[in-house]
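Aim 2 progress update. The chain analyzed this quarter is reproduced below.
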Amino acid sequence: MAATPAAAVAVRAEDLPVFCPNPAMPLWSSHARVYLDVDANGEARCPYCGTRYRVEGAKPAGGH
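Predicted C-alpha cells:
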C-alpha cells in the first residue's frame, strides 16, 4: 500500500509571504522560521519539516 501524501496547507494571496512553521503549528514542533518561494508553481515544501504549502486563488501580480 502506497503512502498517501499529506494535504497541502492552503494559503491565500493576502497570506503571502509564506513561512514555516505557520501560526497554526504547535510550539513544541517548531523549527527555525523559513520563508518559502511559491512564485514558480504556486506551491512549496518546507525544507525542515516537509509541510507543503499551496497558494489558492489568484496570485498577486508583480512584486516589490
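The chain has a mean pLDDT of 83. Strands lie at 9-11, 18-20, 34-36, 43-45, 52-55. These observations will guide the mutagenesis experiments scheduled for the next reporting period.
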